[in-house]
Specification:
Blueprint: H1 2-20, E1 24-26, H2 29-45, H3 47-53, H4 55-60, H5 65-80, E2 84-86, H6 89-110
Antiparallel strand pairs: 1-2
Helix pairs in contact: 1-2, 1-6, 2-5, 5-6
Length: 111
C-alpha cells in the first residue's frame, strides 16, 4: 500500500513541477506516474553507480555535484518516456529541485 501511495505522490510531484516550470512538459497524470516510476528505477540502479564514479567531484564541491547528477538522471528519463520533455539541462536541475521539495512536503505530512 505504501508503494502505491509513494507512486501517486511522485506522480503528483511531477505534475506540480510541470505546472510551475515552463521548460518541462508532461502530457497527462498517467505520464507523470510513469515518470515517477522511471525516476525511481533510475535512482535505484544507475544513480549510485554514477555517484560512485563522480565521488571526487562530489567531495570537491561539497555535494553540490549531486545536483548535476540529478539533472542527468532527469534527462535520461525524459529520453525514454514519451510525453515527458525537458527543454534543457538547466530545466532538468530545477525540475529535480522542485521534485525534491514537493516530495519533502508530502513525506513530512504523511509521518
Amino acid at each position: 500500500m505504501k508503494l502505491i501511495i509513494n507512486l501517486l505522490v511522485n506522480g503528483f510531484a511531477v505534475f506540480v513541477a510541470d505546472y510551475f516550470l515552463t521548460g518541462v512538459t508532461v502530457d497527462s497524470f498517467l505520464t507523470a506516474v510513469i515518470v515517477g516510476v522511471g525516476l525511481g528505477i533510475v535512482n535505484t540502479f544507475i544513480k549510485p553507480i554514477v555517484l560512485f564514479f563522480t565521488l571526487p567531484f562530489n567531495l570537491l564541491t561539497l555535494g553540490l555535484f549531486t545536483l548535476i547528477v540529478n539533472g542527468l538522471m532527469v534527462l535520461l528519463v525524459s529520453a525514454f518516456v514519451p510525453g515527458f520533455a525537458v527543454l534543457s539541462f538547466g530545466w532538468a536541475i530545477v525540475f529535480s529541485i522542485v521534485l525534491w521539495a514537493v516530495n519533502l512536503v508530502f513525506n513530512s505530512l504523511t509521518k
